[in-house]
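User:
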Amino acid sequence: MSEQTPSRSAVSAPDHRSRLRREALRVAALSVGLALLLELLQLVVGALTGAGYGAPAVTRDLLLKVPWAFVVCLALWLAITLGSHRSATILVVGLVAAPVASLLARAAAELAHAYMASAAPAGVPSAFLVAGLKGVEYACLGLIVLWLRRQDWSAAVHHAGAGLLVGLLFGGLLLFFTERSAGDPLTTVALEAWAVNELLFPAGCALILFGAGRQ
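Assistant: Predicted structure:
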Protein backbone atom coordinates (compact mmCIF):
# COMPACT_ATOMS: atom_id res chain seq x y z
CA MET A 1 0.00 0.00 0.00
CA SER A 2 2.87 2.36 0.79
CA GLU A 3 4.10 2.42 -2.80
CA GLN A 4 0.77 3.99 -3.86
CA THR A 5 1.47 7.13 -1.83
CA PRO A 6 3.85 9.55 -3.58
CA SER A 7 6.47 11.20 -1.42
CA ARG A 8 5.95 14.78 -0.37
CA SER A 9 9.15 15.89 -2.11
CA ALA A 10 8.09 14.25 -5.38
CA VAL A 11 4.78 16.09 -5.27
CA SER A 12 6.31 19.46 -4.40
CA ALA A 13 9.30 19.36 -6.79
CA PRO A 14 7.31 20.27 -9.96
CA ASP A 15 5.58 23.09 -8.09
CA HIS A 16 8.94 24.35 -6.87
CA ARG A 17 10.42 24.34 -10.37
CA SER A 18 7.35 26.09 -11.74
CA ARG A 19 7.59 28.74 -9.06
CA LEU A 20 11.26 29.30 -9.85
CA ARG A 21 10.52 29.70 -13.55
CA ARG A 22 7.78 32.22 -12.85
CA GLU A 23 10.01 34.14 -10.49
CA ALA A 24 12.91 34.14 -12.97
CA LEU A 25 10.63 35.56 -15.67
CA ARG A 26 9.37 38.16 -13.21
CA VAL A 27 12.90 39.24 -12.25
CA ALA A 28 13.92 39.38 -15.92
CA ALA A 29 10.86 41.45 -16.86
CA LEU A 30 11.36 43.84 -13.95
CA SER A 31 15.04 44.23 -14.85
CA VAL A 32 14.22 45.20 -18.43
CA GLY A 33 11.42 47.46 -17.16
CA LEU A 34 13.89 49.15 -14.81
CA ALA A 35 16.27 49.84 -17.71
CA LEU A 36 13.47 51.32 -19.82
CA LEU A 37 12.17 53.41 -16.92
CA LEU A 38 15.62 54.83 -16.22
CA GLU A 39 16.09 55.68 -19.89
CA LEU A 40 12.75 57.49 -19.88
CA LEU A 41 13.75 59.35 -16.72
CA GLN A 42 17.02 60.36 -18.34
CA LEU A 43 15.15 61.70 -21.37
CA VAL A 44 12.73 63.67 -19.17
CA VAL A 45 15.53 65.19 -17.10
CA GLY A 46 17.43 66.00 -20.27
CA ALA A 47 14.41 67.76 -21.74
CA LEU A 48 13.90 69.79 -18.55
CA THR A 49 17.56 70.85 -18.37
CA GLY A 50 17.91 71.51 -22.09
CA ALA A 51 20.29 68.61 -22.66
CA GLY A 52 19.03 67.13 -25.89
CA TYR A 53 19.29 63.41 -26.67
CA GLY A 54 19.25 62.43 -30.31
CA ALA A 55 18.20 59.07 -31.71
CA PRO A 56 21.79 57.70 -31.82
CA ALA A 57 22.32 58.54 -28.14
CA VAL A 58 19.01 56.97 -27.11
CA THR A 59 19.75 53.83 -29.13
CA ARG A 60 23.18 53.52 -27.57
CA ASP A 61 21.77 54.03 -24.08
CA LEU A 62 19.15 51.33 -24.58
CA LEU A 63 21.73 48.89 -25.93
CA LEU A 64 23.84 49.57 -22.87
CA LYS A 65 21.07 49.51 -20.28
CA VAL A 66 18.79 46.65 -21.34
CA PRO A 67 21.32 43.77 -21.72
CA TRP A 68 23.19 45.02 -18.66
CA ALA A 69 20.09 45.13 -16.46
CA PHE A 70 18.80 41.77 -17.69
CA VAL A 71 22.05 39.87 -17.08
CA VAL A 72 23.13 41.47 -13.81
CA CYS A 73 19.87 41.41 -11.85
CA LEU A 74 18.89 37.94 -13.06
CA ALA A 75 22.37 36.55 -12.34
CA LEU A 76 22.36 37.91 -8.79
CA TRP A 77 18.87 36.52 -8.21
CA LEU A 78 19.96 33.10 -9.48
CA ALA A 79 23.06 33.18 -7.29
CA ILE A 80 21.04 34.02 -4.18
CA THR A 81 18.18 31.63 -4.91
CA LEU A 82 19.92 28.61 -6.40
CA GLY A 83 23.18 29.08 -4.55
CA SER A 84 21.51 28.25 -1.24
CA HIS A 85 22.35 31.74 0.04
CA ARG A 86 26.08 30.96 0.04
CA SER A 87 28.27 34.08 0.10
CA ALA A 88 30.98 32.47 -2.04
CA THR A 89 28.50 31.73 -4.83
CA ILE A 90 27.22 35.31 -4.88
CA LEU A 91 30.78 36.65 -4.83
CA VAL A 92 31.82 34.55 -7.83
CA VAL A 93 28.65 35.28 -9.81
CA GLY A 94 28.97 39.02 -9.17
CA LEU A 95 32.62 39.05 -10.20
CA VAL A 96 31.84 37.14 -13.41
CA ALA A 97 28.33 38.19 -14.46
CA ALA A 98 28.74 41.95 -14.09
CA PRO A 99 31.93 42.20 -16.20
CA VAL A 100 30.43 39.92 -18.87
CA ALA A 101 27.24 41.99 -18.97
CA SER A 102 29.26 45.22 -19.12
CA LEU A 103 31.41 44.02 -22.01
CA LEU A 104 28.41 42.64 -23.93
CA ALA A 105 26.47 45.88 -23.51
CA ARG A 106 29.50 47.95 -24.55
CA ALA A 107 30.02 45.77 -27.64
CA ALA A 108 26.34 46.08 -28.61
CA ALA A 109 26.49 49.85 -28.25
CA GLU A 110 29.66 50.15 -30.32
CA LEU A 111 28.15 47.92 -33.01
CA ALA A 112 25.16 50.25 -33.16
CA HIS A 113 27.53 53.19 -33.64
CA ALA A 114 29.15 51.43 -36.57
CA TYR A 115 25.80 50.80 -38.28
CA MET A 116 24.51 54.30 -37.62
CA ALA A 117 27.84 55.89 -38.60
CA SER A 118 27.81 57.96 -35.42
CA ALA A 119 30.77 58.79 -33.26
CA ALA A 120 31.27 57.14 -29.91
CA PRO A 121 31.32 59.45 -26.90
CA ALA A 122 34.74 60.90 -26.21
CA GLY A 123 36.63 60.26 -23.05
CA VAL A 124 35.21 56.83 -22.23
CA PRO A 125 37.37 54.73 -19.87
CA SER A 126 38.70 51.35 -20.96
CA ALA A 127 35.96 48.74 -21.33
CA PHE A 128 37.98 46.34 -19.18
CA LEU A 129 38.46 48.92 -16.43
CA VAL A 130 34.70 49.57 -16.35
CA ALA A 131 33.98 45.81 -16.40
CA GLY A 132 36.35 45.21 -13.48
CA LEU A 133 34.76 47.96 -11.40
CA LYS A 134 31.30 46.61 -12.17
CA GLY A 135 32.33 43.12 -11.13
CA VAL A 136 33.49 44.24 -7.69
CA GLU A 137 30.53 46.59 -7.30
CA TYR A 138 27.83 44.00 -7.97
CA ALA A 139 29.61 41.29 -6.01
CA CYS A 140 29.46 43.70 -3.06
CA LEU A 141 25.83 44.55 -3.74
CA GLY A 142 24.90 40.86 -3.89
CA LEU A 143 26.62 40.17 -0.57
CA ILE A 144 24.90 43.13 1.09
CA VAL A 145 21.49 42.03 -0.22
CA LEU A 146 22.17 38.52 1.08
CA TRP A 147 23.05 39.94 4.50
CA LEU A 148 19.93 42.11 4.51
CA ARG A 149 17.77 39.07 3.69
CA ARG A 150 18.98 37.44 6.89
CA GLN A 151 17.90 40.39 9.04
CA ASP A 152 14.34 40.42 10.36
CA TRP A 153 14.24 44.21 10.35
CA SER A 154 15.32 44.74 6.73
CA ALA A 155 12.84 46.42 4.39
CA ALA A 156 12.72 47.95 0.94
CA VAL A 157 14.26 51.21 2.14
CA HIS A 158 17.34 49.37 3.44
CA HIS A 159 17.84 47.63 0.09
CA ALA A 160 17.41 50.87 -1.83
CA GLY A 161 19.81 52.62 0.52
CA ALA A 162 22.38 49.86 0.10
CA GLY A 163 22.12 50.18 -3.67
CA LEU A 164 22.58 53.94 -3.50
CA LEU A 165 25.63 53.67 -1.23
CA VAL A 166 27.29 51.01 -3.37
CA GLY A 167 26.50 53.04 -6.47
CA LEU A 168 27.89 56.19 -4.91
CA LEU A 169 31.17 54.49 -3.99
CA PHE A 170 31.85 52.66 -7.24
CA GLY A 171 30.06 55.19 -9.41
CA GLY A 172 32.29 57.86 -7.87
CA LEU A 173 35.35 55.89 -8.94
CA LEU A 174 33.94 55.50 -12.44
CA LEU A 175 33.18 59.23 -12.58
CA PHE A 176 36.78 59.96 -11.61
CA PHE A 177 38.21 57.72 -14.33
CA THR A 178 35.75 59.09 -16.89
CA GLU A 179 36.75 62.66 -16.16
CA ARG A 180 40.42 61.75 -16.39
CA SER A 181 39.82 60.06 -19.74
CA ALA A 182 37.90 63.06 -21.06
CA GLY A 183 40.51 65.56 -19.90
CA ASP A 184 37.81 68.18 -19.43
CA PRO A 185 34.95 68.73 -16.95
CA LEU A 186 32.03 66.47 -17.75
CA THR A 187 28.98 67.90 -19.47
CA THR A 188 25.53 68.12 -17.95
CA VAL A 189 24.42 65.23 -20.18
CA ALA A 190 27.24 63.03 -18.90
CA LEU A 191 26.48 63.86 -15.26
CA GLU A 192 22.78 63.15 -15.71
CA ALA A 193 23.59 59.80 -17.29
CA TRP A 194 25.98 59.03 -14.45
CA ALA A 195 23.37 59.75 -11.79
CA VAL A 196 20.78 57.55 -13.50
CA ASN A 197 23.06 54.64 -14.36
CA GLU A 198 25.37 54.58 -11.37
CA LEU A 199 23.07 55.62 -8.51
CA LEU A 200 19.50 54.76 -9.42
CA PHE A 201 20.17 51.47 -11.20
CA PRO A 202 21.91 49.71 -8.25
CA ALA A 203 19.09 50.88 -5.98
CA GLY A 204 16.49 49.58 -8.42
CA CYS A 205 18.26 46.24 -8.82
CA ALA A 206 18.44 45.85 -5.04
CA LEU A 207 14.69 46.52 -4.81
CA ILE A 208 14.01 43.87 -7.45
CA LEU A 209 16.03 41.36 -5.42
CA PHE A 210 14.17 42.41 -2.28
CA GLY A 211 10.80 41.84 -3.94
CA ALA A 212 11.90 38.46 -5.28
CA GLY A 213 13.04 37.40 -1.83
CA ARG A 214 9.58 38.01 -0.39
CA GLN A 215 7.86 35.55 -2.75
